[in-house]
Every structure is written in C-alpha cells, then in structure tokens.
Protein 1
Amino acid sequence: MNIVLLGAPGAGKGTHSEMLVRDFGLKHISTGDLLRAELKKASPVGLEAKSYMDKGSLVPDAVVMKLLVGAIAGIKHGNGFLLDGFPRNESQAGMLEEELASRNMNIDRVLYLNVSKDVVIKRLTGRRICKSCGAVYHVFNMPPKREGVCDKCGGDLYQRPDDTEETVLRRLEVYRKETEGLINYYKTRKILAEVNADLSRDNTYGLILQKLGKK
Ligand code: AP5
C-alpha cells in the first residue's frame, strides 16, 4: 500500500502518518522532516532550504526532489510507503510519477485531509515538538504532563519557527496557490479519497481507515 497524504499545513499529515506507520508498518517519508534534518546538520542543502522554510515558501523542486529520490531508493519492497508533504505542486507530482515508474512502483491512494483555516491556525500556533525525540504535542489538545517537557524522553519542547501566526498564514496562502490544484490532479486519476480533518485525531483516523478499506 503506497499512500500520499495531501493537505494544508496543520491538517494532521504528521499525526496520522505516525498512526498509519504504527498500524501498518509503512515507511514514512516526510520532506519537511528530511529538510529539517539537513538544517540540523547545517549541510549546504539545509542552509539553502532554511531561507525558504523560515518564510513559509516552498523549497525549490530540485532540492526537495534530490532528498526524495534518496529516500525512495532506500525503500525495500514490503509493506509500502507513506509520503507526507510531497508532492506539493504539479511539477513534483509529475517527477514523482516518473521516479516511481522507473522502479515499477505506483501510488495506490491519495488521502486528502480537508481542514478549515481556523482549525489550522489553532493547531499550528499551539504545536510543540520535542528537541530530542521529535514527539509532537499541542498546548491545549495534547499537552505534556509537565509544561515544556517531553513525556516520552524528558527533552525540551520547542515551537517550530514557521509556526508563528504570520508564517502560518503565509504557508496557507502558498498551499492555496501551489498545492491545492493537486486535489483535482489526483481526482482525475481516480485515486483521491477526501477525509474531514477538522475532527478529533481518533475520529479522523477512523475515516482514514474506512477510506483505506481497513475498517
Ligand atoms: P512540512 O514540515 O511538511 O509542514 P506542513 O506541510 O506545513 O505541515 P505541518 O507539519 O505543519 O502539519 P501537519 O499536517 O503534519 O500537522 P501535524 O500532524 O503536525 O513543511 C515545512 C516546510 O518545508 C514547508 O513550508 C516548505 O518550506 C518545506 N517543504 C516541505 N516539503 C516540501 C516540498 N515537497 N516542496 C517544497 N518545499 C517543501 O499537526 C499539527 C498540530 O495539530 C499538532 O500539534 C497535532 O498534535 C495537532 N493535531 C493534528 N491533528 C489533530 C486533530 N485531528 N485534532 C486535534 N489536534 C490535532
């Protein structure tokens, strides 16, 4: 089962990726995480990506594609993969199709997590992430037991620099202009399934399982 999770910033792509990986053993490929890992290493790719990410703009296709191809090359034919945050425009979608075809692979399902703007702003401005293990919290929806401290490993929690309200609004605008067109792109290929992502985590996940024929 090869899946793409499509949706605005804050739709819950990372959250539901974690649940799908837990339940189905899929390989999770998040281009946002790959870029942040490069940034942490201060590699040339990471440094180039930083200026775009800080502004909430898309990183150039060529940079992201290089990371994605590396991640796809590491996939062993098995349970399948889950793409989170890729593709983000039609050009990336075309390159993905070509790359997968060259490896006799394809996408089975695109899950479109449909979320409203107000929900996104609340979710992203309240998101906190563990510096050590990457666990994700929310100051209201999923607070840690001790403020600022990760329940899982005791690490410090931080706010992503692109999760300020100003940058979230910019990211939503970029999503509307560049990524939203992919909904029709995958609808015409008859592999799109839409899910109401305004609901609670568990209710949204229930709908995802239904769309995947797993419930
Ligand atoms: P990326 O890291 O991919 O960010 P994003 O797409 O903006 O998505 P987010 O990670 O913000 O949100 P999410 O949908 O994963 O939500 P989450 O589950 O964490 O990209 C960052 C940047 O990298 C981009 O702006 C761009 O610059 C660059 N980039 C990445 N990929 C690229 C590409 N392909 N091309 C070019 N540039 C690229 O949830 C958010 C919060 O809400 C959490 O606190 C969570 O606990 C909570 N939550 C989630 N679901 C629910 C729910 N149902 N109910 C209650 N709370 C919930």
Protein 2
Amino acid sequence: MNIIMLGPPGAGKGTQAKFISGKFSLPHISTGDMLRDEMERKTDLGKKVEEIINAGKLVKDDLMVAIIKKRLSQPDTKSGFILDGFPRTVSQARSLDEILKSMGKRIEFVLYVEVSEDVIVKRLSSRRICPKCGRVYNIISNPPHDDNLCDVCHASLIIRRDDKPETVRNRYRVYLDLTLPVIEYYRKRNVLFTIDGTLPVEKVKDMVLNILGGAK
Ligand code: AP5
C-alpha cells in the first residue's frame, strides 16, 4: 500500500501515520522528522534548513524531491510506504508521480485529515515531543504518565521550536497557499479520502482502518 497523509500542521498526520505503520508494517516516511534529525546532527543540510523550518516556511522543492527520491529507492519501501509531510506543493506532487512511475508504482490512498486553524493552534501549543525516541504527546489529549517525562525512555519532553502560536499561524498560511492545491490535485485523481481530524484519536484510527480496509 502506498499512502500519503495530507492536512494542515497539527492535524494528526504523524499520529495516524505511526498507527498505520505499526498496523500494516509499512515504513513511516516523515520529511519533517528527517529534516529535524539533520538539524539535530548539525549536518550541512540541517544548518541549511534550520532557519526556514523555525520560521514556518517551506524548504525548496528540488531539495525535498531529491531527499524523497533517495528514500523511496531503499528496499524497505518495496511493499509500500506512508508519506507524511510530502508532497506539500503541486510541483512536489508532480515530481512524486514521475519518481513512482519510473519505479512502476503509484499512490493508492491519500488520507486528508481536516482540522480548523483554531484547533491546530491549541493542539500545537500543547504538543510535547521526546527528544530521544521522537514519541509525540499532548498535555491535554494524550499526556505522559509522569509529568513532562517520556513514558518509554524517561527523557524530559520538549516543545518544537516551530510550535509557537505565531509560527503555527505562519505554517497554516503557507499550508493554505501551497498545500491546499495538492488536495485538489489528488481529488481529481480519485484517490483522496477526507477524515474528520477533530474527532478523538481512536475514532480517527477507526476511520483510517475503514478506508484502508484492515481489521483492528
Ligand atoms: P512537519 O514535521 O511535516 O510538520 P507539519 O506538517 O506542520 O505537521 P506536524 O508534525 O506539526 O503535525 P501532524 O499533523 O503530524 O500532527 P501530530 O500527529 O504531531 O514539517 C515541519 C517543517 O519541515 C515544515 O514547516 C517545513 O519547514 C519542513 N518540511 C517538511 N516537509 C517538507 C516538504 N515536503 N517541503 C518543504 N518543506 C518541508 O499531532 C499534533 C498534536 O495533536 C500532538 O500533540 C498529538 O498528540 C495531538 N493529536 C493528534 N491527533 C489528535 C486528535 N485526533 N485529537 C486530539 N489531539 C490530537
């Protein structure tokens, strides 16, 4: 199964992508996680993208396409993958089509998680991340057992630098300008499935399973 998660920042794409990844044993390819890892390791790429990400802007299309092309050539994507955060522009979507065509593959499901701007700002200001294992929490809807410590590796949880309300609003504007047209791109290709992302996580998972046709 070749799947794309689409939706505004904080819609719950990563949360659902991790669930699908575990359920169907597919690699979860998050371009945001890949870029943050480069930033953490202070690589040339990480240094190049840091300012862009912290300002809530988009990294250049040609750079992102090169990253995804390399990642999709790895053997673990042979029986499918979940793309989370890519494509984010129509140009990236077209490039992805070309890459997949050259591999004899195509996108089968585009899961569009729909949530309003106000919900997003609220959710992202209460998101917390484990800097060690990447697990995502929410101090309102999905808090850790121990105050501010990861349930798995007990590291102190952090707030993502681009989760400040003013940066979230910027990210949302960028999303409206550049990513909404991607939704129309896939709607025309009859592979788009819209999910109400304001529902509780478990209900959203049920909707995802209904669409992908798996049993819970
Ligand atoms: P990226 O990391 O992809 O950020 P994003 O798309 O803005 O999405 P988020 O990770 O913020 O949110 P999410 O939808 O995954 O929500 P989550 O599940 O965590 O990209 C970051 C940056 O990298 C970009 O701004 C850009 O600069 C750059 N970049 C990346 N890809 C690029 C590309 N292709 N081209 C150019 N630049 C690129 O959930 C959010 C919170 O809500 C969590 O706390 C969670 O616990 C909670 N939650 C989840 N679901 C629910 C629910 N149903 N109810 C209540 N709470 C919920």
